[in-house]
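Standup notes
- DV: blocked on the single-chain target, sequence here:
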Amino acid sequence: MEAWRILAAALLVVPGVIGILLAMAKARERTGESSAVAVTGLVALTALAVAAVLTLTVLPVVVTWVLSGAVALTVSVLALAS
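- DV (later): unblocked, structure below
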């Protein structure tokens, strides 16, 4: 496995986990139900896991870096907005 894939996956997962926590907090704020928070966290975690596995295995270079950058940018904007 190439080193750039591992680096891109790490740069995807770290902001992704923060994004999951932000999404869960937003779901808790809007609904107040723990079941909605759990479903939101599970869906977001599954999407992040699929993206990380695809990053580590089959995605081309450009797609991998665009995905990592988009997740980092989105989480940064969400963190600043909340």
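- Follow-up: Residues 3-31 form the longest helix (29 residues).
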